[in-house]
Design a protein that fits this description.
The protein has helices at about 20-35, 45-50, 55-70, 90-100, 105-110, 110-120, 135-150, 160-180, 220-225, 245-255, 255-270, 275-300, 300-330; strands at about 5-10, 40-45, 80-85, 155, 185-190. The chain is built from 13 helices and five strands.
């Protein structure tokens, strides 16, 4: 019998989920979970959260919001192992073991760290590591522990995370070669139709930039946020092309290919930006209205969410323990009995 394929992904708990998280991570992951030949592991990456965010209330609120979002978007906790990263101490143990096996040079090449260094250089700060913490530096190792702990084959992520999954693969290969063949080599899965969505300030839509369109804001607020998407000064009636506003990519992420082709045609024929924004908000709303109602119900009952996470942690730890025992043994950490 074929072994089911394992699909795993996490969302950092540093803010309220936005359209980018949904189309880049949550939606493809939930689709994958509906395939009977897969076993899915989805989690709240709260230990990743405290890397970028040092506001306790925000981490806490976000944990609830992210959990409610997954459940509202259709995650079935019976089918999927759904848990909070910090409830699985085995992941932290593996994190250390992997830290001891990972080349520093590999971490020097990680995008998030390089971007922080570049930022210092751009500001003319002499110490290139100014205000960079070890959590940020070692971030890809913790992410590798998340992935390798459950022997995931496929990791659905947005494009910005591909490098981290490749690093997890590297680290796994190195361990397998040096010690024992215990880890599955993971692969990133990208939804080809979806670009990295751009936020309201023109940068990548990200919780860390405060430039997002929140996933479950009210219909009215959604239209208001959509109205803030950057466009140019072209008048109604002037031909417009898809690359003139990030609005197009968001539309594409919520529309069928035929609808997208039709939208492109309408822009070329001079559709006004204001009208395009109404069409976009309607499109998003059509996909999200029911989910939004479920989200509001869950948010009113945090204890229900906590119970679901605790049950998930029990399932996840059972898996994690078995592999961690083998990993510890492989590196020579064993009982003396
Ligand atoms: P954020 O940048 O908002 O903090 P996370 O780092 O928590 O988002 O990312 C969670 C998941 O959502 C990842 O798989 C990531 O690649 C995806 N993602 C985040 N932002 C976007 C975006 N703007 N477009 C597409 N996918 C995204
Ligand atoms: N670092 C990911 C992000 O910011 C979140 C994450 C943490 C993750 N651990 C993971 C994603 C493991 C996939 C697999 O988007």
């Amino acid at each position: 019998m074929n072994q089911p394929e394992r699909v795993l992904t996490g969302v950092t708990t540093t803010g309220i989920p936005h359209l980018g998280n949904y189309v880049g991570a949550i939606r493809p992951a939930i689709r994958a979970s509906e395939n009977p030949n897969t076993e899915t592991f989805f989690f709240l990456a709260d230990y990743h959260g405290i890397i970028k965010c040092h506001e306790p209330e925000r981490i806490h609120e976000s944990t609830q919001a992210v959990a409610a979002t997954w459940l509202a978007c259709g995650l079935d906790p019976e089918r999927t192992t759904f848990y909070r990263q910090s409830d699985i101490p085995e992941v932290m143990e593996l994190n250390w073991i992997l830290t001891c096996m990972t080349a520093k040079g590999l971490m020097n090449r990680a995008h998030a760290y390089k971007a922080a260094v570049q930022d210092n250089l751009d500001k003319g700060i002499e110490d290139q590591d100014h205000q960079i913490e070890m959590g940020l530096y070692s971030y890809p190792i913790l992410m590798s522990a998340d992935i390798l702990m459950f022997n995931a084959h496929k990791v659905p992520v947005g494009r910005d995370q591909i490098q981290h999954v490749e690093m997890a693969r590297d680290i796994a290969g190195r361990f397998n070669h040096r010690f024992k063949n215990l880890f599955t080599l993971p692969e990133a899965v990208i939804d080809e139709q979806v670009e990295t969505l751009v936020g309201l300030d023109g940068r990548k839509m990200s919780k860390s930039y405060g430039n997002t369109i929140p996933l479950f804001e009210s219909e009215k607020k959604l239209q208001k946020s959509v109205n803030k998407i950057i466009t140019n000064l072209k008048e109604p009636g002037e031909p417009k092309s898809p690359d003139e506003s990030p609005l197009f990519e968001i539309y594409q992420a919520f529309a069928t290919p035929d609808e997208t082709a039709e939208f492109t045609q309408m822009l070329a024929e001079g559709l006004a930006w204001g009208e395009a924004k109404k069409m976009l908000a309607a499109k998003i709303n059509a996909e999200l209205a029911d989910k939004r109602a479920r989200y509001e119900e869950l948010t009113a009952k945090p204890a229900v969410i906590e119970d679901i996470l605790q049950a998930g942690a029990v399932k996840a730890r059972r898996e994690a323990r078995a592999l961690l025992d083998q990993v510890r043994d492989a590196v020579g950490i064993r009982t003396l009995r």
